[in-house]
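pinning this so it doesn't scroll away 📌
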Amino acid sequence: MSKDYLTGVIDIGSNTIRLNIYRPKKNNDNYKTVISKKTFAGLSAYIIDGKLTDAGIQKTVKILNKLARIIEDLEI
């Protein structure tokens, strides 16, 4: 896998946090998904008065740290 051309996207949603890693196809008009990791976070349960609670923030950070290790290992 050529690391030079990989692109990663993290999507933080109300129920899941997703990491997708893409590589451009040969024509550079499209991308191929090479890694797709979805983690259930249930962040909507940590909302009080429209704000994420400290527990919700801690859960988010823990998941993001795990995804960051994947990104770092792939040198993205």
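📌 and the second one:
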Amino acid sequence: MKIELLHRPGNTAAKVTLNQGEVITAESGAMIAMSGDMDITTTTHKKKSGGFLKALKRMVAGESLFLNHFEPKGVSGEVIFGTALAGDMMTLNLDNESLIVQGSSFLACQEEIDIDLGWQGFKSIFSGESMFWVNLKGRGEVIVSSFGAIYPIDVDGEMIVDSGHIVAFNETLDFTITKAGKSWLHSFLGGEGLVCKFQGKGTVWCQSHNPNSFGSSLTSGLRARRA
């Protein structure tokens, strides 16, 4: 399998070249184009197994209920993936490890990767962001996307990140929800509110734009024009 990221960084698309027998799994609706000899199988989890319970959990997280599995019928084939929001993408190679990805940032992965949901409980409820994270486990390549630029932050000890800017992070990191400023009043008056405090050793990948803030600004503008 060969993955090429095209037109980076503002409007990135992922071109995946598959050899015979190779399969890539992607979110429903992510395909831009594909070669004529590409076979698509749609399931709720693995290509050869339904996994309906896991599919329902993904749907609660804001992900599609279904996954598409692409496999060339001939010697090789190509498929190009894109996202709804303009931004960058990155590939990560998992080696029998886990990667936690925020729901809308998961794009595609090799068939060998298991796609599950990581429950973060009340920590995420109070953050004002998604209550669930997509948990990718196993060995193989993963494609994730961002809204705007994507960049890594290495954590060795402690780091505070706005939850709306998180794309993915290593499962080796733990996090808690806390205030951004010295007091709760300063945190909310400063517009930051609650943030994620990561602890441990690992990497957090961040995006330069916050989708929720972007959506709120558009809604506000539309209301102003209607008035």
